[in-house]
Amino acid sequence: MKILDIEKLSVSYDNNEVLSDISFSLEKNDYLAIVGENGSGKSTLVKAILGLLKHKTGSINFSGIKKNEIGYLPQQGLIQQSFPASVFEVVISGRLNKSKFIPFYTLNDRKCAKETIDKLGMTKYIKKSYKDLSGGQQQRVALARALCSAKELLVLDEPSTGLDPIATSELYSLIKKLNEELTIIMVSHDIASAIRFSSKILHLNKNILFFGRTEDYIKTDMYKKMIGEGE
Predict the structure, then answer these.
(1) φ and ψ at 42, to 5 degrees?
(2) What are phi and psi of 21, to 5 degrees?
(3) CB-count burial class (<10 Å; 0-12, 13-18, 19+) for 54
(4) Which of 42, 53, 60, 151 could form a disulfide with 69 if both were Cys (CB 3.0 to 4.6 A apart)?
């Protein structure tokens, strides 16, 4: 079942074309890793998919998903590390875009927050201040917040940035587990983890250099160049 279809997408900043003629589609429960050099348009593509940037030409179409039903974990996180709120308060704030004109959290919102915190193994920290958590724990809380918005699609922009190797490994394993329930789109500079966990690769450099199965990507020269084996 197709969940996302992008056709001939182009995005510009101040008349400078950053993405050109991007076309691809994703099926339900795909795990797409978006890779490429710095400045290749990876984060721009994510923001266009989320509707945070207007596209110049082309179309982005979802099947059975509304924009406020996409979970999003941005590169730097929506929450400052010193944010003076409890884990529960941070996570439930992910339900704000569900409430529309309702100025308070519903019982369903609170249930979702508690269940998501439990799913990510953070229940014992539910009343703890967010700012007192480790970097890995903070990223789990930020992920839980994103999951409170997600219906079928979760978008992550370099989620392991700033994490130590152990926390990074735990985070990627957790995301892979979530892929059993959700379609994943992840921007990654960590090519080894992208190859290990994803089912599809999109390699960008303004245009699409490769889109397809991960097992086919690792046979290409561009992959060898990314890992330092190419000329």
Answers:
(1) -65, -55
(2) 55, 55
(3) exposed
(4) 151
Tokens, residue 213: 């199965």
Each residue's pLDDT, cut to its tens digit, for the chain (231 residues) gives: 889 999 999 999 888 899 999 999 999 999 999 999 888 999 999 999 999 988 889 999 999 888 788 999 987 655 566 667 899 999 999 888 655 555 678 899 999 999 999 999 999 999 999 989 988 899 899 999 999 988 899 999 998 888 888 888 999 999 999 999 999 999 998 899 999 999 999 999 999 999 999 999 999 999 988 887 654
207 φ, ψ (degrees, to nearest 5): -105, 175
Cβ atoms < 10 Å from Cβ of 90: 23
Tokens of 95: 């339900």
Phi, psi of 159 (to 5 degrees): -70, -20
- Supply the pTM of this predicted model: 0.89
Cβ atoms within 10 Å of 207's Cβ, excluding its own: 13
Give the other-Cβ count within 10 Å of 28's Cβ.
14
Q: Residue 177 is encoded by which pair of tokens?
A: 């587990």
pLDDT tens digits, one per residue of 91-104: 999 888 655 555 67
Tell me the two tokens of residue 45. 């593509």
Rounded distance, CA 215 to CA 116, Å? 32
Alpha helices in 32-134 (DSSP H): 42-50, 87-92, 96-99, 107-119
In angstroms, rounded to a whole number, what is the distance separating the alpha carbons of residues 188 and 194?
7
**Helices marked H in 64-164 — which ranges?**
87-92, 96-99, 107-119, 135-147
